[in-house]
Each structure stands twice: as C-alpha cells, then as structure tokens.
Design goal:
- The complex is a heterodimer of chains A (about 180) and B (about 240).
- With about 180 residues, chain A is α/β, with parallel strands linked by helices.
- Chain A is built from 6 helices and 8 strands.
- In chain A, helix 1 crosses helix 6.
- Chain A is globular and about 45 Å long.
- The termini of chain A are close together.
- Chain B is α/β, with parallel strands linked by helices.
- In chain B, about 45% of the residues lie in helices and about 15% in strands.
- Chain B is globular.
- Chain B starts with a strand and ends in a 13-residue tail after the last helix.
- Classes of the chains: A alpha/beta (about 180), B alpha/beta (about 240).
- At the A-B interface, helix 3, strand 4, helix 4, strand 5 and strand 6 of A face helix 4, helix 5, helix 9, helix 10 and helix 11 of B.
Chain lengths: ~180, ~240
C-alpha cells in the first residue's frame, strides 16, 4: 500500500493577496507531482451561509436545503483522503468565508450524539472521511498565541471527520508542508 | 446607558441564542434610563447602517452559537467588518452558547473573543458561556427558567455598571468537562439512545424513518456515476 494519499482537496479563500496566491500556486505545483489535487476557491464560488435549520439532519438527511456550489466540494470530500483548508487569518482567526464553508459540512454528520475522548461529538455520515489540514496565512500582528488558539479549535473539528492532520502557516517550509499533505 | 446587541445566530429571533440574549437585554433595560437595540446578523445591511449607533453605545453584546468549530461564518464576517472601539474602554460582552452539554469546546473561543475584542480596542466586560442550548427547545420551560433568570440578572448588573458575579458565570458554564463517573453515566445514556430522544422525535415529526436518517445521498450518486462508467475512481467509501 502506498504511503501517500491518493487525492487531496484544497479549499482556499483570500487569493486577492498576491503573497497568498503565489504560495498557493507553488503548493499546488508541489502536490500535483505526487497525488491528484482538486482546488476550490471559495471567493469564486457561490457558497452561502448555513441557516442552522437542521434540515440536513432531521428532514432530508445528508442533503442541505441551500442549493449552491457547496455540494460540489462535498462530493470531492467523500472522495478525498485529505482536505486542506487554506485561508488568511483575519483579525486572528480563519476568515468568515472559510468558516462558512466549515459550517456547511454539517450534512456530512449524523444527528446522533456520541462521546469521544471525554466529550460529545457527532459521528460522520460517511465511512470514508478525509483528515483535515489547515494552512494559515499570517497577518502582520499574528503571534504565537493566535496560532495556538486556532490550533486548539482546528484540532477539535478534525475529530468529527477523518482526524486532524496538521496546521501550518504559509511561512513554514514548503517542502515540509507538501510532504505532510501527501503523507498517509 | 445604551446597549447594542448583535445576535450572531442565522436563525434570528427564534434562535436559542436570541432566546438567551433577550433576558440579558431585559435585565439591562430594567435599570431606569437604560435603552437597548438588537440586530440579527443575517440583516447585514441593517447591521452596517447601525455602526454610528454602535459607536454611541456604552456596551455591545455579541451573542453567538458554536457551530461545531466556532461562531457561524456570517458572524465571523460581521466581526471582521465591525468598526474599532469608538473611544478607549468602550465595553463588550460576549454570550457564547453551544449545543453539547459540556462547555469544554467553548474555552478556546472565549480566549479568541477576548483577544479579538482587545485587538479592536474594546474592553471585555465579561464572557457568558452556556452549554446545552437546545434545552430551550427540547425541555419544558420550567427547566430553563432558573438559568435564564441568571442571565437576566447579569444584564441588570451590566446595566448598573456592576461587574458580573463570578459564581453566576460559573453556574452557567458548568459543566466544563464531565467527571469520570458522570461520563460513564452519559455513555450509558448515549448508548441507550436517551441523548437522542429529541432528535428522534424531530425525525418522526418529519416522517423520516430512523434507518433513512443514515442516508448517504452523495455516495449513492457517485455509485450511479460509477455504474455508468463516467468516473474512474470508485473507492470513495472503502476503508483506508
């Protein structure tokens, strides 16, 4: 069995920043040599905010009431081994756009409550779930505490799906980020 | 004193978040001379038109639910565009509520909220944390009246310029985590499906069979695709 993942889905936002878009191009080029990659740019897509209606839970299980392009990413989600969320930090935290994408992962969960690692959780709806990697683009005032807070929250969300894989910043070594992204 | 409240739940007025924010607002305005205004986050234009009134207010309440990671995306976007404090020391209260009964997952969000407010130049008046928000929908009103009253008292404190009594905040956010004994008890309840009674009731109300609640609609479509040989990769749901 290969020690590399077969398919990586990258979901990004904030590409108007040339530094971030340069990083993303180099990152995708690095990944493309080793696995199959799908990219979704949230700023070029119609992905609307979650309504908190629970319809995907208790009325039409697994199907969101909002008909927009999120479903394209969810289809890629079920086929991917790793989901990478590439986002600028905005006021110390992942962008609202990226958070909206995360909110809309709700149809990928079952409505029932489970206890895992001492706290409550929902089981994933699908058997195959990608593990989650985060790449954050720092702001001028980003400090170690900001990254620590983001890490703690990002770790938690990984538990709902295929686990938490990593959190890097765009300032980390590209070789290492690519290596960890494709590592099984 | 003036309070400006932002309800960060996209469910608006009927949301559990707003049902918790309302007693805070009531408590605040129960002090003679005080006034309050509330805007729901999905009314983006209205919120943006309120910036001058936010600047005039003495206290801003940011109330939001945890959507299994942090605040809803709409709320984060609203936070990004919210103006900086109009004057040094303008105060802010957070009301953070989550669906799970323990509030462990709120802790880093509280840390973020405090740091974010500081970045924006606001003074943190206090952070109210409450777990098991769906109790408002799932449980009889009598089970919620006591803690809603506590939130009202906190609103009254803020309206009088008094600090929040720590034991009240503690009471609202308990339990942070479960003791091993309680955790075992919860595991048994969860295994028996008792934790899911409300969910099961809602499924029944919507005529969804328990078996159908496990539906995998995306996968079924993929398999159709595979059968039609339009897609090469069909190993989507195989174990890794």
């Amino acid at each position: 069995m290969s020690n590399k993942v077969a398919q990586v889905t990258v979901v990004c936002s904030g590409m108007e920043d040339p530094e971030l878009s340069d990083f993303t191009n180099a990152y995708l080029a690095g990944l493309a040599e080793q696995c199959s990659v799908v990219l979704y740019d949230l700023d070029r897509m119609d992905v609307r905010g979650c309504l908190g209606c629970y319809v995907c839970n208790i009325k039409t299980p697994g199907v969101c009431i909002i008909k927009d392009e999120q479903v394209d990413i969810l289809k890629a989600f079920t086929a991917s081994d790793r989901l990478v969320l590439l986002t600028p930090l905005k006021e110390g935290f992942i962008s609202g756009k990226m958070k909206t994408f995360i909110d809309r992962l709700y149809p990928m969960e079952l409505p029932f409550i489970k206890i895992k690692n001492g706290h409550f959780i929902h089981d994933p709806r699908y058997k195959h779930n990608p593990s989650l990697g985060f790449i954050l683009h720092k702001e001028p005032d980003t400090d170690g505490e900001d990254l620590e807070i983001n890490l703690e929250i990002n770790r938690f969300i990984g538990e709902f799906y295929g686990g938490f894989a990593f959190q890097y910043t765009t300032g980390d070594r590209m070789e290492e980020i690519v290596r960890e992204t494709v590592r099984h | 004193m003036k309070l400006f409240a932002i309800n960060g739940s996209p469910r608006g007025k009927g949301s559990n978040t707003y049902r918790m924010a309302a007693p805070f607002i009531e408590g605040f305005t129960s002090v003679p001379g005080n006034e309050a205004e509330a805007v729901h986050v999905q009314h983006q234009t209205r919120l943006m038109r309120s910036y001058d009134r936010i600047a005039e207010s003495d206290l801003i309440l940011l109330a939001f639910p945890i959507y299994f990671h942090s605040m809803p995306g709409q709320m984060k976007e609203a936070m990004e565009s919210l103006p900086h404090a109009a004057r040094p020391g303008q105060a802010m209260v957070f009301l953070i509520q989550c669906g799970f009964p323990d509030t462990a997952q709120c802790r880093p969000i509280e840390r973020y909220a405090a740091k974010w407010a500081e970045r924006k130049g606001y003074r943190v008046y206090g952070i109210i944390v409450k777990g098991f928000g769906p109790s408002l929908e799932a449980m009889p009103p009598g089970m919620n009246s006591k803690w809603l009253k506590t939130i009202q008292t906190l609103g009254h404190c803020a309206g009088s310029g008094l600090p929040f009594p720590e034991p009240m905040l503690e009471e609202l956010r308990a339990p942070r985590t479960f003791s091993p004994g309680l955790l075992l008890f919860m595991r048994i309840l969860a295994a028996l499906g008792i934790m899911d009674l409300y969910t099961r009731k809602r499924l029944r109300d919507n005529h969804v069979k328990l078996r159908d609640s496990y539906a995998k609609p995306l996968l079924e479509k993929r398999e159709d695709n595979r059968d039609a040989k339009t897609e090469g990769r069909g190993a989507a749901d195989s174990p890794r």
